[in-house]
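2024-03-11 09:14:02 INFO worker-7 job=invfold-0412 stage=load source=structure_tokens
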């Protein structure tokens, strides 16, 4: 190791994404043309713009039910899991809405969406409801671009949000600095 780089380990080019993956998790909440509500945890989500309204992008595998639902209905919500919802995140991330009705099977209590007929899991730190602007596909990665119609949050939402790095590492944000 060079002296100048002392203290830094090499991260493989495959795992390098995790260095920029320390943001807050979201649940992508959808309702399909089949009438079934679904939700999937997604770590790859990012704000895109705020003028005149907030816009977001989220990266979904094109094999996911939530991806198909968004293409069908052109609407979705991003709900922000709170610290106590790690178990729910892992359950919802372990099965597809193609095979399981997650809200029914896991008895997930929910709030109705404000702009859209969507289900928001109770206990989240907040949520935004988005209409789809466009999609892009690269390989099996589908990117959804959404603009916000409604948003709600707890007063101290930023302290409550569950964060995820990768490799099963979840964390609570530190103190405000
Ligand atoms: C902590 C966590 C983060 C995840 N992040 C993503 C992600 O960023 N993009 C993605 O496509 N899938 C992600 N997944 C996997 C999906 O949530 C999972 O495949 C889910 O079962 C898809 O459900 P669906 O088929 O009902 O849409 C993540 C799973 C977990 C547990």
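2024-03-11 09:14:09 INFO worker-7 stage=emit residues=177
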């Amino acid at each position: 190791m060079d002296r100048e780089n002392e203290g830094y380990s090499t991260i493989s080019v495959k795992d390098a994404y995790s260095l920029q993956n320390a943001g807050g998790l979201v649940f992508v909440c959808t309702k399909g043309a089949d009438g079934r509500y679904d939700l999937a945890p997604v770590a790859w989500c990012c704000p895109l713009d705020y003028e005149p309204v907030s816009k977001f992008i989220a990266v979904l595998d094109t094999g996911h039910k939530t991806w198909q639902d968004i293409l069908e209905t052109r609407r979705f919500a991003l709900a922000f899991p709170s610290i106590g919802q790690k178990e729910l995140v892992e359950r919802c991330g372990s099965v597809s809405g193609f095979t399981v009705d997650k809200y029914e099977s896991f008895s997930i209590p929910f709030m109705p969406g404000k702009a859209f007929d969507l289900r928001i899991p109770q206990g989240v730190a907040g949520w935004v409801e988005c209409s789809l602007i466009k999609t892009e596909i690269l390989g099996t990665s589908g990117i959804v671009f959404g603009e916000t119609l409604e948003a709600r949050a707890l007063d101290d939402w930023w302290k409550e949000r569950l964060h995820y790095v990768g490799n099963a590492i979840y964390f609570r944000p530190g103190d405000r600095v």
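2024-03-11 09:14:09 INFO worker-7 stage=report msg="The chain has one domain: 25-166."
2024-03-11 09:14:10 INFO worker-7 job finished
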